[in-house]
């Protein structure tokens, strides 16, 4: 199965304030959007973060060919366990997901 | 119509001079620039300092002050000095005075202060005036009192009050990113949904367009919508680049909470006017019953010492995780035994760069690296204790063998001493809103006349 990064234009992750992380998947085409929107479940994203997924907000935005997820940060920004101050590297882990 | 010129997403990131001049020639009503964010972490708010170099800030601010004088309109900076605490505002005021003296122009400066008194915030918390937002940390009034800095995020009302002083320059403490852009259009009865939506689109400068590094954009607000135009050569906005900006660093791309209400862009329509400009209509502002402002706080969270070593020996590179785990077990035991610290009194962690430093236990891949950087991260209650734990960790990072049988290895240290002391570290302590009976209740404005 192809990885998410091979079928979309870009996966971006960023802080949305110190307590939330937001992931934007720019699919780049209607076809890719349909594959991601239908083929990437919220629970699959939750599994990447080893959470139950209840706190994950999902937005499927056909006008932009974007699927977006927002979730509580794996560690609060800048706390002892935080590994990435700006939250940008998580995109690589999401890009690895097989769709 | 109100025309807002936005030189860049933040003072300190530079802007395109030619594009700025183009903006001045277009006769803006105000120049607005953001000066901060929480995005660089809790240390800046904790210490009340700016992340950007004073030299860069001064150079860029001097350029904007000269442009302002040329245009004869107000110049406003929000969240001055990265965190918007009073000390950072004072730093910005000091730079402004210095430039004013060098440029030799009389100036009226309004300062909007957002710093909060910890005791008063703790009392408000006890009185039920402070409510948690989603995923807020659990707080107590003691935790609130232990914050080194608490700021409230000013909205359009407080910026409007500062503009009403007739100041040439407004140096604002912590504000929402949007408030400095939305304030004047709202004062002049432009469409409220458009004022906030345009402000959100413009708050990162040209990030809503192509050629985002150029910074400079112009937004025209009127009574039915707004029009965004990037001003640098080769920069253009399209319905896609503009609408996609609502995704940026935003948990919800359709709803944006602000003091006094929220913006709903679900019904917004984006239309290309020409090759560079986009028109947006249909966004809605929904006023709230209660007026609340968001709070940010940072409190001391111990002292940190960091060590780094390099593994290049293939045997150790191949077994780095096991090696690191063994060091953590042995070193933690030694810290407790020799320093008398409890297990929860300190944190000691080894991250393996090239192996699993990005995601730790959440990593899903593995590959054989050539070398591994080992970073030891120590957090302890005092600077002396953090340094002492660093010295206990030092011999392990230098010589720890995988098994008793093998010859004692020696790994690469980069420096003498290898311990790097980061001093006091901070943590974000609040993700809450404060209820106000009057928007100015938690804010202060002072006016400085420079002859």
From TrEMBL, chain A:
It comes from the Bacteria. Pfam families: DUF4387. Residues 4-91 form the DUF4387 domain. This is DUF4387 domain-containing protein.
